[in-house]
Amino acid sequence: MSTLPSAPHDGSTQSATRTVHAVCTLDCPDSCGVLVTVDQLTGRATRVQGDPAHPVTRGFLCGKVAKYLDRVYAPDRLLYPMRRRAGVPKGPLAQGREAEAFERISWDEALAGITAKLAATAEEHGPESILPYSYAGTIGQLGYGSMDRRFFHRLGASQLDRTICSSAGGAALTSVYGVRLGTVPQHYAHAGLIIAWGANIHGNNIHLWPFIEQARRNGAKLIVIDPYRTRTAALADEHLAIRPGTDTLLALGLMHVLFRDGLEDREYLAASTDPAQAEALQAHALLPEHAPDAVAAVTGIAAETIVRLARAYGTSLALTGRPAVIRLNYGIQRSEYGGTAVRAVSMLPLITGSWKHLGGGLTLSTSGAFPFNGKALQMPELMEASPLGRASRVVNMSQLGAALTTLDDPPVKALFVYNSNPAAVAPNQNDVLRGMARDDLFTVVHDQFFTDTADFADYLLPAPTFLETKDVQGAYGHFFAQVSNRAIEPRGEVRNNVRLFAELAKHMGFTEACFDDVEDDLIDQALTTDHPWFAGITRERLEREGHAALNLPKNADGLSLPFSTPEWFPHGRVELFPLPAYMAATESRSAPAAEEFPLEFLPRKADNYMNSTFANHAGHQHMEARNTGVLEMHPDDAAPRKIVTGDRVEIFNRRGTIKLHAQVNRQVAPGVVAARLAWNKLSSGQAGLNRLTSENLTDIGGGATFYSTLVEVRKA
Ligand SMILES: Nc1nc2c(c(=O)[nH]1)N[C@H]1C(S)=C(S)[C@@H](COP(=O)(O)OP(=O)(O)OC[C@H]3O[C@@H](n4cnc5c(=O)[nH]c(N)nc54)[C@H](O)[C@@H]3O)O[C@H]1N2
Ligand SMILES: Nc1nc2c(c(=O)[nH]1)N[C@H]1C(S)=C(S)[C@@H](COP(=O)(O)OP(=O)(O)OC[C@H]3O[C@@H](n4cnc5c(=O)[nH]c(N)nc54)[C@H](O)[C@@H]3O)O[C@H]1N2
Ligand code: SF4
Ligand SMILES: [Mo]
């Protein structure tokens, strides 16, 4: 374990408090720099604030993390290792009563018990019968994936394909551009038109907002394309309530008008791609099925609006002197053909050449800009030293239910969950819970709280908040690398992911030196690369300065403009093939399944929680109260079902039923209903939204399809 580092913003040692530079490790594009005030005498954190020196954080935190100390010091934090009491069946426990199902044990007992069981399982069923399950409880490089991967690689456990969030969009963006990166967030201030496309900026990416406001003060317009009237939509100049899953067609409709009206930048398009591909795209876009009337009929957006949007997009630079920019986010790729949708939308700035201008282009994720040495951190070559002697099988995390209930050869016999709450967040919850309840499944859960998943644990291990551990981090919404210093001593007997897996390795008898690495070693390894974008960025520098800008290539004007010049294209050019074509999802209003289940369900994220994180805190619940336990539906759908606001309603499909209270309003258009994610055990009947979602995968990237879900609704 590293010692408490000297903080870059250390106050005088004489003073009663000191300030430590940390990073918010939650799964959010903003990766905020956080200044933690710590009382020198008690060692207790007394305040968290946004780092005013960080160019994107700019001194403020979101409402969720402003209350982070409520989480760090919550009386119900998990602080000690625990083991399920003999005879207590696995399954949902009432909140506040969970501890009764477990007994406190020592770390030695926990480590010995877990490794003995894992070793026996590997011996009897083969190591691939062990499945690690983790996602983004922390997106710090170390916490997200370092020692844990080494441990499971060496063990020969199944590998997890981490697809639940962004793999469709990531693979799609990479298939076009060769890399995941996009417009610099600060440059949004220079845009003349901003399109938020499947992006709830004000709810999920609040640090982009001030730059958008700056652009709007200079006359820029903000247009939101989202089937739900988000906070962002309510604050925008215009909200286009697109029908879910039809974004590919809208993008093609915009291309149609751009080419038809001669608004394309021929030179730029020709320079960035193969001319034959550019011609093929133009011919494809100009097909009659992509004309505004045809597109309007499917997307629900009026033909004249499509024409107006395309013209505004194509003429922004000419008319305002400022380019158009698209904040594309992951909303559009959580549907069956979401990969194609991302490919289609991401081609728009290539057609208009808006990449060339300050404030133009598109952002989906900037994560590909950070050349962290993932191979050094995760050491996949350790799989060869495992009893398997080869790469182990890969299990898609978006099909956990199927993995636990149907996978064979070998079946999953041990599940090790950390950084995630799959009982609440994984799709097809019925199968997930049925699988987790299996008597013959051994389950370990490492978390900060008694989550829904913890209710199924054989062993429960206490995990740190980001104040209690050290890490290094990039971002998926900006271009600054940061070190998060440990601000406070770990509470109770909390151990971080690095230390947990290093100790498990020791108890397993793994003798490789890599299991001796501590945080500082791992940070050094993560930053060890020849890649020029990390030149000069070292642990010492990040510890001293808090954050450092990547050394991105500059264009002739000295600006970092992704894709402004050919040197930005990793393959020398972009790839437009296969040309994006619209397909209706099997769970959408245009599909046969809609006869029985006619409503498109959006099981969305809560503005005041982070996926299922924070759902258990009174302060956060208070902020989210208006939307809790609520199904939002349009009057046109409520009336024929004789439903009025406040009615208890059943939302159901073949996979299950949940109960919520109807809120009849115009946040959604006819045909769409929406609700928000929380913990199952805090939901009516302990049934979370994911009872209704499927394990169908996206067309590209094997992602989850939460937003392709058909339901019917009736009065309970
Ligand atoms: N407050 C808050 N912030 C968060 C999170 C949170 O839970 N709460 N989660 C974090 C995580 S894990 C992530 S990945 C990011 C995600 O941030 P976003 O990428 O913004 O993801 P979502 O909120 O899933 O989707 C964005 C919007 O897409 C809309 N949408 C759904 N289907 C469609 C469609 O077919 N077409 C279009 N055009 N729009 C559609 C949704 O209604 C939603 O408002 O946010 C992070 N930030
Ligand atoms: N219906 C529906 N389902 C969804 C989504 C949706 O929009 N709608 N969104 C999907 C998306 S985009 C995502 S990213 C996933 C998110 O799914 P998850 O990544 O599972 O996210 P959380 O629910 O926030 O759970 C993270 C857990 O990690 C724990 N944790 C935090 N830090 C640490 C640590 O250092 N160590 C350990 N061991 N644990 C830690 C937290 O306490 C928390 O319980 O959910 C997906 N599921
Ligand atoms: S959740 Fe996002 S916006 Fe909030 S503090 Fe963390 S990084 Fe910043
Ligand atoms: Mo996510």
UniProtKB/TrEMBL annotation:
Q: Cross-referenced CDD domains, in alphabetical order?
A: MopB_3
Specify the 4Fe-4S Mo/W bis-MGD-type domain's residue ranges.
17-76
Q: Which InterPro entries match?
A: Asp_de-COase-like_dom_sf, MoPterin_dinucl-bd_dom, Mopterin_OxRdtase, Mopterin_OxRdtase_4Fe-4S_dom, Prok_Mopterin_Oxidored
Q: Print the keywords alphabetically.
A: Iron, Iron-sulfur, Metal-binding
Establish whether keyword Iron is in the entry.
yes
Q: GO molecular function: any one? A: iron-sulfur cluster binding
Q: Does the keyword Hydrolase apply?
A: no
Q: Name one Pfam family in it.
A: Molybdopterin
What does the similarity note say?
Belongs to the prokaryotic molybdopterin-containing oxidoreductase family.
Could you identify this protein by its name? Anaerobic dehydrogenase
Protein species of origin: Granulicella sibirica
